[in-house]
Amino acid sequence: MGDMMPAEAKRARVNEAYAQQSRALVEEKLILRHLPMVRHIVQKVAAHLPRRWDVEDLVSAGTLGLVRAARQFDPARGTEFSTYAYIRIRGAVIDELRQRSFVPSSVHERIR
After folding, report:
1. Domain containing 38: what range?
2. Beta-carbon neighbour count of residue 14 at 10 Å?
3. Domain-located, residue 4
4. How many CB atoms lie within 10 A of CB 65?
5. Is 17 inside any structural domain?
6. Domain-located, residue 94
């Protein structure tokens, strides 16, 4: 960008801003489209948990996993987003369970 003319530099900045905005819109669409997957995964995991567990905490963790998946997804790797997101969401939910540590390891084994 150092040897670009002012107009070219401005055009490059505009193009970069457009690309970032487009990426943000794509991420938002991916998140909204796959949000039901979070509840589905949490319901499957929660089936193996004691009833006292607050499922909404797991939904929050799963939602963060989905957001991270949307931000880090690279379509050039040839993987469907839904496959990638499923793994990331489930991993975030299981990480939340592990962090809470009062879930017995036998429950972790059943969830895997």
Report:
1. 34-111
2. 10
3. no
4. 24
5. no
6. yes
8-35: pLDDT as tens digits: 877 777 667 666 778 888 899 999 999 9
CATH number where 39 lies: 1.10.1740.10
Range 32-56 burial, b when 16+ CB lie within 10 A, else e? eebeebbeebbeebbebbeeebeee
Is 0.85 topped by the overall pTM?
Answer: no
CB atoms within 10 A of CB 81: 15
pLDDT at residue 13, rounded to an integer: 76
Whether 88 and 31 have beta carbons less than 8 Å apart is answered as no
- With CA atoms as reference, report the closest residue to 94 among 51, 64, 52: 64
Residues of the chain with pLDDT under 70: 1-5, 14-15, 17-19, 101-112
Number of domains in the chain: 1
Q: Secondary structure of the chain: what % helix, strand, coil (to 5)?
A: 80, 0, 20
